Amino acid sequence: MTTLYMTLLAWLLFLGYWIIVIRIIFCILTKRHSTPSAISWFLVIYIFPVIGIVTWLFFGELYLGRRRFQLANQIWSKTNLWLIDFKSCDAIFEKKNSDVATSLFQLCKHRQGLLGIKCDQLKLLTNAKEIINTVIHDIYLARNNIEMVFYIWKPGGFADDVANALISSAKRGIHCRLMLDSAGSVDFFRSKWAKIMRNSGIQVVEALKINIFRIFINRFDLRQHRKVILIDNYITYTGSMNLVDPRLFKKSSGVGQWIDLMARIEGPIAGTMGIIYSCDWEIETGKKILPKKLKKNKVILKSKRKHGSIQVIASGPGFPKNMIHQALLTAIYAARKELIITTPYLVPSDDLLYAICTAAQRGIEVSIIIPKYNDSVLVTWASRAFFSELLEAGVKIYLFEKGLLHSKSVLVDKQLSLIGTANLDMRSLWLNFEITLVIDNGQFGKDLASIQYEYISHSRLLDKKLWSTRSNWNRILENFFYFFNPLL
Hints:
Layout lengths: L1 H29 L4 H13 L1 H11 L6 H13 L1 H8 L5 E2 L7 H11 L3 E3 L2 E5 L2 H14 L3 E6 L7 H14 L3 E7 L4 H5 L2 H7 L3 E5 L20 E4 L3 E5 L18 E2 L2 E5 L2 H17 L23 E7 L7 H12 L3 E5 L7 H12 L3 E7 L5 H8 L2 H7 L2 E5 L3 E2 L3 E4 L3 E5 L5 H5 L3 E7 L1 H16 L1 E3 L2 H5 L3 H11 L6
Parallel strand pairs: 4-5, 5-6, 9-15, 12-13, 13-14
Antiparallel strand pairs: 1-2, 2-11, 3-10, 4-7, 7-8, 8-10, 11-18, 12-16, 14-19, 16-17, 17-18
Helix pairs in contact: 1-2, 2-3, 4-11, 6-12, 7-8, 12-13, 13-15, 14-19
């Protein structure tokens, strides 16, 4: 009888395994994954059967859970009236764009339904202490509301100064909301600050909560990766910086201080940022917090200089699919003279790789700046698999040596800028909740160029001939990790 039971159990396991495999294959084929992604999944599942199946269950399907999924599909229908009123304020929209930006702004108008919004006060911030001091100053001057969303809030140093400023504002009657990613901000939720803030009246939400009971309900690696601050529906910040003190953050990793970039903007662009925040808040809490409606024809722009215009692109479940990826491709193909890209994680899609190489081959001066040392071994090796093709096309690759360059920026012909939270990897482009600013402004472009040239001055240019002499073991490792490229 024991032998019979063991045989029956073996057949049941064998049958169960193939049912799961067939189910996964069915999902891959019916969801129209890209060819490299589909092939990678097939190989992982067949070469590493158990690991492959478990990996698929955690990372293969984009699911939020039933409640969040329903909310994500409903949020835009509920905000239509607000958007109609917003679009009726003609004074805030810029109807013309520069030659290099026109195609991208047309894409945004077609897919998001909005023209570019005039810039008012727009400033780039690169020094962590200056960023934090400016944020704290604005928090203390807030009159009505403060909303924040961050992937990482790491207690200690500068972060505690921001926490104290928020608590002080909440106690004087300012409506404060704070949304933090569960995985990225695990140290925050284990610290005293979550309780102190809630007791002071701040609404604190743990986004995409991770625990053992929800692993099969929510996709494990779908993260809230935005970094946004909204104050009084008028001032907004976004960029690459998490709420951390770079002097303390990940000191043991040996990669140096993290180097970031943030933009501070005043004006009606805060309305579209507020809509995105409202949608994120509703997906997590079920409650809608639409920003106040603008009064038609009563919008005053403080600056009298030429404004330029801004578009905000958000990604994630419930938002226009693949929009950031499309925007990057459109911007790269619009380049006529110079293209500079900074990213900490360079694992581009085939389309992006082809666009970048094509830009260099048609005479555009293309530079990519990445950190020499990275906090992710997997991404480090996967990135190197692209170097040969980029170098052959004429792309200049700079390895930043003065810390972990975490800035995410694209500058086209010193006129069209894209900055935000998205890395050049699959997770940022097709999975996470991300945000990107598209800015058509010559002065802003020059400011961004100055920062990027400074990065280059602290970088080492990768030599094409020297790179070609690397060992065969390095080539094997690069190609092995490239195998996981579509899964990163």
